[in-house]
């Protein structure tokens, strides 16, 4: 069982180094994680990122930058994740551009990604052009992987704070956990293997890829951390519930995408036991950078490395994807749970997309159609992102068009 203390004091962690100490060996994060050092040639970094951006669909990859300065001008694919390995964003500086749009010159796109899930974390970007986009965390930051002054990999758990300024500098406040307290998982690992590690009191670090789950990943102990790298996708097989949390006190879940399978799951993530889970305001649970997708994905088209998922049965359509189905995306039975950048959505395009598709019985239609008597809408803008494409009207045939230079219309 992992140790847990609701009242453990937060500690400030300045960057320190041990003179003459030999750096520990590099962890084996698998083939989908690449680590760069300041001495890595810029052309090599760019080639790796560009290859990931144009590579086969469905291959999630993570690129990690050790503390230092880099000169990078590269594309970021939809399944590419980039992160600094410093204890603060100031320890990794990238000069140049990281382009979600795939532009090749300063005039061809934003300098940093602004996709649904921001694929860039824990670094400082000095853009050559465009405007970087980012978000502000809530009252407690998400866990993150970093390299300490001796070269060892650790996971930092930010403390619960009030009145703090993100990126304000100074020492980090929280707890530092050595990587050997984590089970470093790969997509081929079985649910039994993951649950055995959790039962032994270890945390989980899920490396990129699709984890096909024929049973439930069960988080039993307070204070457990489940952290995904760039991006870890949990895809249920059959009507499986992908993950449950028994005791939510101090549990941190971050960096995951729950992708509903072709058979309806009753829920994709459940925190706390039904009827009221244990909680503590001094040690809230947190769900951060976690996404739930129902329908529209190609996750269930095939399996990693050609292997059938554990316990899987052939579908009637063979290799064709089926629309994802789930009754409920997220159930929270406990008090004192922080939800920070949580997206739960039904697909708007792709396989199984549609407002009534996918099986969720919750979530209402946001508005009546404008043609219904007595219904009025006001102060509704239409936005065409970056001037690419056209939003013809705000609702049906009502409202002006957003297109070209006029990216916002009322």
UniProtKB/TrEMBL annotation:
Domain of life: Bacteria
Region (Disordered), start-end ranges: 298-325
Name of this protein: Pectate lyase superfamily protein domain-containing protein
Species of provenance: Actinacidiphila rubida
Lineage: Bacteria, Bacillati, Actinomycetota, Actinomycetes, Kitasatosporales
